[in-house]
Design brief:
- The protein has a domain of 52 residues.
- It is built from two helices and two strands.
- Strands 1-2 form a two-stranded parallel ribbon.
Length: 80
C-alpha cells in the first residue's frame, strides 16, 4: 500500500478505518511504521494517517510516521 496523489493504490482515511476488521493481526505492543509523505503531519493535534492507524490498532505501542514530505530515510527520535 502507498499513499499518494494518483488514484491507484491510494489509501484514504476512510479505508484505514476499514482495517479494523484485521486489527487483531498486530500483536499487543506491536509497532506500526508508515513510510509515506506527511503521514504524521501535525502529530497528535491533526487528523492524519498516523492518528487513524493508532485509533484502529489500539494495541500498538508505537505508530511512527514522517511529518514532512521530503524524506530519504527514516530517522526515529525519542521525545523527551
Amino acid at each position: 500500500m502507498h499513499f499518494g496523489n494518483d488514484t491507484n493504490g491510494v489509501l484514504t482515511l476512510q479505508e484505514v478505518y476499514r482495517l479494523r476488521e484485521i486489527s487483531d493481526r498486530l500483536a499487543d505492543g506491536g509497532t506500526v511504521v508508515l513510510r509515506s509523505c506527511s503521514a504524521g503531519k501535525g502529530e497528535e493535534s491533526e487528523v492524519n494517517m498516523a492518528n487513524a492507524f493508532a485509533e484502529v490498532f489500539t494495541q500498538a505501542r508505537h505508530v511512527f510516521a514522517p511529518q514532512h514530505a521530503d524524506f530519504h530515510e527514516l530517522i526515529f527520535q525519542r521525545r523527551q
